[in-house]
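[recover] target loaded
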């Protein structure tokens, strides 16, 4: 698989959970989950694999899925070890998102575009300025529309129905009895 396909697969299924020192989910992640957490910030949405999946679904309908794919590719690129692998991934990101012939070109300011010569000496933060531009574009444009979209609202409704189901209430009552004895 190409780097981009691997990165997309990885982003959907293996986003790391944020844990405390004992390996348990941190308390900030326990208080809010799902759509409630997504609605607090784009950062929280992008930390959740299900959130990324739903946001991608929304952006696809808006013909701007390349923005989140570029952002995810840059996040994965920062973790790349070794000059050769970094050169290969940098070239793939450039050819996929930044080149004038890119198949999924992102909309970044013209003077911010990278020339192919920088690909010879890659470094982990070489795409940071462009990634920040795309993040801000998503944050101040797509993200607010996503929170009003049917995709988000339907997912939120399903979550609320699950939380209010008799099975969930019974489990909560059992847990309450266990911890209050």
């Amino acid at each position: 698989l190409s780097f981009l396909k691997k990165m997309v697969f990885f982003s959907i299924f293996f986003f790391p959970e944020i844990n405390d020192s004992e390996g348990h989910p941190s308390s900030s992640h326990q208080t809010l989950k799902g759509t409630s957490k997504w609605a607090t910030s784009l950062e929280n949405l992008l930390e959740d694999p299900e959130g990324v999946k739903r946001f991608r679904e929304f952006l696809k309908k808006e013909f701007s899925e390349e923005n989140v794919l570029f952002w995810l590719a840059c996040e994965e690129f920062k973790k790349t070890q070794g000059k050769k692998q970094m050169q290969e991934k940098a070239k793939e990101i450039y050819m996929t998102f930044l080149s004038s012939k890119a198949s999924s070109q992102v909309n970044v300011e013209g003077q911010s575009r990278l020339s192919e010569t920088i690909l010879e000496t890659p470094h982990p933060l070489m795409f940071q300025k462009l990634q920040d531009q795309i993040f801000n574009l998503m944050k101040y444009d797509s993200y607010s529309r996503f929170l009003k979209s049917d995709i988000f609202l339907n997912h939120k409704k399903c979550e609320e129905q699950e939380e209010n189901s008799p099975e969930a209430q019974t489990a909560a009552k059992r847990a309450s009895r266990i911890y209050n004895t």
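[recover] notes: The first helix runs from residue 3 to 13.
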